Amino acid sequence: MATTDVNTADTARDVRTIDGVVDIIASTAPEIRTGLPGRRVTAEDENPSGETQMAADVFADDLLCERIGALDGVGEYASEERPESVDVGTGRLSVAVDPLDGSSNLKPNNTMGTIFAVYDGPLPAHGRDLVAAGYVLYGPVMTMIVARNGTVDEYVIHDDASHELVREDVSLPDEGSVYGFGGRVPDWTDDFEAFAREVEQDASRKLRYGGSMIGDVNQIL
């Protein structure tokens, strides 16, 4: 997650709202994680991406929509689990989430997490309107990566819903030791396939793919 890809919030109110979104994501994460064991079954619907919803997807989405939507500075909430964004207030910031990335990993008990992004303006928004972004990883240790104010930081989220800064100014390593490619190989573009084959030439690098973007990105980061 490059720091230059996330803009700086313009006003003190926006900063407070962004901090509020991060706090809500962190404080809700333990509740989402605790609720996973009893929600490893499919729901009756598909999400707009055509994926079968898990009960845990709906559970996490409902929690986040209610809590993020209660922030004064947030005007819209969008989720992978909803066909359209929801008007939640009069604030100018919008929040988009994937409440449970990798929820298909629930049954095999593999990695998953929550992804969020905050935009300065209504949805759909341009990338240049992105003012904060991050994700929570529900691993053996619950961690959160947050990009805001021109930097990327890592936090540990404790069971009491508090979060503790453990690493500042996180960046991709100059020479990575692991890599992960998503998607079906027949669907790769020629340029991407050439890049993938070049990466594979280095025998010191190890392939890692866990079925969730968060888990794969976190290993590389």
Report on this structure.
The protein is of the alpha+beta class and 221 residues long. It starts with 11 loop residues before the first helix and ends with a helix. Helix 1 packs antiparallel against helix 2. The chain has an eight-stranded mixed sheet with strand order 4-3-5-6-7-8-9-10, with helices on both faces. It has a two-stranded antiparallel ribbon with strand order 1-2. Strands 11-12 form a two-stranded parallel ribbon. The chain folds into two domains: 165 residues, Fructose-1,6-Bisphosphatase, Chain A, domain 1 (2-Layer Sandwich), CATH 3.30.540.10; 43 residues, no CATH class. The chain is globular and about 50 Å long. It has four helices and twelve strands; from the N terminus they run H-E-E-H-E-E-E-E-E-E-E-E-E-H-E-H.
Quick take:
GO terms for molecular function: fructose 1,6-bisphosphate 1-phosphatase activity; metal ion binding. With 221 residues, this protein is of the alpha+beta class.
How are the elements arranged and paired?
Blueprint: H1 12-34, E1 42-46, E2 52-54, H2 55-68, E3 74-79, E4 86-87, E5 93-101, E6 113-120, E7 130-138, E8 142-148, E9 151-157, E10 163-167, E11 178-179, H3 190-200, E12 206-207, H4 213-220
Parallel strand pairs: 3-5, 11-12
Antiparallel strand pairs: 1-2, 3-4, 5-6, 6-7, 7-8, 8-9, 9-10
Helix pairs in contact: 1-2
Pfam families: FBPase, FBPase_C
InterPro entries: FBPase_C_dom (IPR044015), FBPase_class-1 (IPR000146), FBPase_N (IPR033391), SBPase (IPR023079)
Keywords: Carbohydrate metabolism, Hydrolase, Magnesium, Metal-binding
